[in-house]
């Protein structure tokens, strides 16, 4: 049973070859706002809310809701919009979706920012522990959970987990979204599948950039080496000073890497035609 792609909320602007932006678990399309202006100068840009996040509703409980089902949904979403092999960009969960579509031949290029699926065993165990903790936290009274996430300690934990520089005063109000951690919520439903996911494709037949923040505290930067062993032709980029959501830390650097990857795909296509 397929997810309904007509209910996916998205923003579309700019002109040129299309770039589709895919956010991470628990995030939304607004995560990409810091880079969209730069991308729109040269490309048509589509930022969407994955099912269950932002303004896109989650699939019904009887439908599959895991990484493969999200891959299928994004593929059909692109088909519905008439996007033929767009450039795909994803962060974390979105990075895995982009890489899976790249492996399926559905992308002109892939830029994956700290993608899931390449954790060494200790980090994989940690991800599973976090998923289990989310399921337990879902039964904590909402008022208690919100008080904890918005406490000084809770905000400090969010900054340390999500930002390259936890001391940046601009992020002093950053907090985890307590409303997402409720029994049966999309986050709680999807988190165990994200924790258990491993990227297994042996070939990704398009230009690939694997970019990782050197201050990523959710997914260790060592995952980049594992990604390169799986995708040897990928270009590896270290995003200095960036955490798990590099678009928030250094948007210009992230936009530059996305544009560079798309340019590599364009140049390869021109050589193939010549």
From TrEMBL:
Keywords: Hydrolase, Ligase. Pfam families: Abhydrolase_6. Transmembrane segments: none annotated. One of its GO terms (molecular function) is hydrolase activity. It comes from the Bacteria. Residues 19-256 form the AB hydrolase-1 domain. InterPro entries: AB_hydrolase_1, AB_hydrolase_fold. This is Alpha/beta fold hydrolase. It comes from Nocardiopsis rhodophaea.
């Amino acid at each position: 049973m397929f997810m309904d792609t007509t209910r996916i909320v998205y923003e579309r602007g700019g002109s040129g070859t299309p770039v589709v932006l895919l956010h991470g678990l628990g995030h939304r399309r607004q995560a990409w706002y810091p880079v969209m202006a730069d991308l729109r100068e040269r490309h048509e840009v589509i930022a969407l809310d994955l099912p269950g996040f932002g303004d896109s509703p989650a699939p019904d409980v009887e439908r599959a809701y895991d990484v493969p089902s999200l891959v299928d949904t994004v593929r059909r979403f692109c088909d519905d919009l008439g996007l033929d092999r767009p450039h795909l960009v994803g962060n974390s969960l979105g990075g895995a979706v982009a890489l899976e579509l790249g492996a399926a031949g559905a992308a002109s290029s892939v830029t994956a920012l700290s993608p899931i699926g390449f954790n060494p065993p200790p980090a994989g165990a940690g991800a599973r522990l976090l998923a289990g903790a989310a399921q337990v936290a879902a039964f904590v009274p909402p008022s208690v959970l919100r008080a904890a996430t918005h406490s000084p300690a809770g905000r400090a934990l969010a900054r340390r987990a999500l930002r390259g520089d936890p001391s940046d005063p601009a992020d002093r109000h950053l907090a985890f979204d307590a409303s997402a951690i409720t029994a049966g919520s999309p986050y709680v439903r999807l988190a165990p599948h994200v924790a258990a996911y491993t990227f297994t494709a042996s070939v990704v037949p398009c230009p690939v950039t694997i970019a990782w923040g050197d201050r990523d505290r959710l997914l260790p930067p060592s995952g980049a080496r594992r990604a390169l062993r799986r995708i040897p032709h990928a270009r590896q980029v270290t995003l200095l000073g960036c955490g798990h959501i590099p678009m928030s830390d250094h948007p210009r650097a992230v936009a530059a890497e996305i544009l560079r990857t798309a340019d590599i795909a364009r140049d390869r296509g021109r050589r193939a035609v010549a």
